[in-house]
Amino acid sequence: MSDYGPSLVEHDSTEDYTMLSIGDLMSGLLLLFALLFMLALMQIGELSQARQQTRDKVLATLGQEFRRAGVDVNITRDGEMVLPDRFFFDTGRFELKPEGAQRLRQMMPIFTRVIFARPEFSEEIQRVVIEGHTSQSGDYVGNMNLSLQRANNVLLFIAGQADLPHRDELLARLMGAGRGKIEAHAGEDESDRKVLIRLQFKSDEELLKQLSGALRAG
């Protein structure tokens, strides 16, 4: 037997032990990453569910308060308040009618009191968008200009209400947009001629930022 035999055996055993240790470490790290990933998914699900519940509560509260005040406003599940143009504008015009102005005076104090009444409500709202829409009648440029001017006039009227509750908080989120006939139905449909006041809730990107902050804090 060679004098080098035992040394070679001991060397091989050491290498095997080292390889096993590295393999165990890698398995442990993979398991840890898997657990962290599952934890992140669970937290995303919980945050998403909580945020949806808050959004539903915002819309439900708005509906209740409008009904209590006798103000007829249609609120969609997406957070859109539909303002039919027959109450607010004459055909082909962008000047706000007195009837439309009176409706806005009734609506907006209720609207701002609700969405800014609770921190969990206001924190969920990223933008309040005044959005103009037209029917298919007319050309693209004319309809786009008309929808922009109508949205802008509604926005300026709201911004000009000095005694509006939470006015500064609203203006920090308020913006106007014109959609023209992009989302109009085929053919002539009166329901397409409208202005929307749309609540733009925080996006999934904001949710991920919130989760990232929660994980770092934990």
Rg: 29 Å
| Number of helices in the DSSP assignment | 7
Structural class by sheet pairing and helices: alpha+beta
For the largest beta-sheet, the strand count, sense and barrel status come to: 5 strands, mixed
How far apart, in Å, are the first and last alpha carbons? 61 Å
Query: What is the ordering of alpha helices and beta strands?
Result: HEEHHHEHHEEH
Give the overall shape, derived from the CA principal axes. Answer: elongated
Low-confidence stretches are none
Strand content: 5-15%
Mean pLDDT: 80
Strand order of the largest sheet: 1-2-5-3-4
What is the oligomer described by this structure?
single chain
The total count of strands amounts to 5
The level of helicity is: 55-70%
Q: How would you characterize the overall build of this protein?
A:
The chain has 218 residues and is α+β, with helices and mostly antiparallel strands. Strands 1-2-5-3-4 form a five-stranded mixed beta sheet. α1 crosses α3 and α1 packs across α7. The protein is elongated. The N and C termini lie far apart (61 Å). 21% of the residues are buried. The model has no long low-confidence stretch (mean pLDDT 80).
Notable characteristics:
218 residues, alpha+beta, 7 helices
Nutshell version of this structure?
This protein is α+β, with helices and mostly antiparallel strands. The chain has helices at residues 5-68, 85-88, 98-115, 119-122, 140-159, 167-171, 204-217, and strands spanning 74-75, 80-84, 125-133, 174-178, 194-201.
